[in-house]
Amino acid sequence: MSASNGVKGGLLTLLAALVAAAASTLCCIGPLLYLLFGISAAGLVGIPGASWLQIPMVIIALGLMARGFWRLHLSPRPVCVNVVSRRVLVWLYWLAVPLVLALIAYPYVLPWIWEWME
Prior knowledge:
Blueprint: H1 3-25, H2 29-37, H3 54-74, H4 86-117
Helix pairs in contact: 3-4
């Protein structure tokens, strides 16, 4: 495998990650617009059509976070660090953990916050 194939593969992976990130935000555009314009934000707490996805997605998110922790801190096989250093990966991981936990907890915490603000 030549160096140009490695760079092409890395760029293709980066492009695929960007497309996946953009596609994953499409579901949030509607609720974000509702929140920005103040249209019935209280009704967004329990969107009934997608509530069955909540538990599987939480399990997947926590499983991936656990796998990331395992690969960064406990695995005998080191993480591949061709583009960024391991230190940067550890920093990014620990910056992502509170964000993921906040996103998991917000459906349970948001009603309490609204009740407290009233």
